[in-house]
Amino acid sequence: MEQHVDASELLERLRLPRPSVTTPQMFEYQLIDRAREQRRHIVLPEGGDDRVLRAAGRVLQRRIADLTILGDEAVVRQRAAELGIDISAANIDDPRTSTHIDTFAEEYTRLRAHKGMTVERAREIMGDISYFATMMVHLGVADGMVSGAAHTTAHTIRPSFEIIKTEPGVSTVSSIFLMCLSDRVLAYGDCAVVPDPTADQLADIAISSATTAARFGIEPRIAMLSYSTGESGSGADVDKVRTATALVRERRPDLPVEGPIQYDAAIEPSVASTKLPESAVAGKATVFIFPDLNTGNNTYKAVQRSAGAVAVGPVLQGLNKPVNDLSRGALIQDIVNTVAITAIQAQGDAQ
Question: Which residues pair with 144 in a beta bridge?
Fold first, then answer.
């Protein structure tokens, strides 16, 4: 359909009104469509994983992004052929034999000179797919990286802390999940990276999450979640959220934010009208900031499994350039969506 039908012309002839709700299918389509508008170059380090190869085939077929896949070229292309996948348009690079290795080793030595790094040791480190791919992004050989289908989160993102580092004004790398419910898309943060954020880190997470949400078409209205709403509770946990809310208002007065607030008061208008009737956020929040990783991770999984939501992510935020981590249980469509998300993030970075 995408290759042989003019979708704009078809919609014009049908003259259907644009729906006011966003279903998971609509959201995924919008991701793909936006990624295609300004195609970016994404590196996939895990060329030995069949899911990654299948996802790469879809990405290339649908022209979502240009790709570099890491691995032995003969092995990767042979396996793709065995799977019946066309990756002829992809660039294949092997960190062990790449022409980039000397340049990458010299740059890594420069970045880690304060740690006593030598060129010889740096060359060995650049043989690791995560470090090699991260250096590709750092030096602009690729616009973004997607990994984690066959490696841990730590293995995927640790090189980013050393090489890419955080964007100006942000000291905390965090994540959000884009939660596609039956009639809307919400942002949940942080559900994957920071175990027990301080008030300052929580404010960072909220601001980064609002920025990321806006990039994906979600109007940010931030709920700083707690077991207490407004002034009704006290204690160290509530005070942390209260302080974080004040910091968000101080740093970004343009962002609508409410906290501390309970989840029901944040999302349900009838509850909000009772608990916080004057709030501009209560009852219509779109960005939900959890007080710790324990709460956030369990909540997103509960909503995903019990409410049938599609959880897209984790989308990493706060880094200078886009690097995204996959679940080791990622499905092919999850990988495709994450490539699209990474490409959209790279579009924003290029503006």
Answer: 42
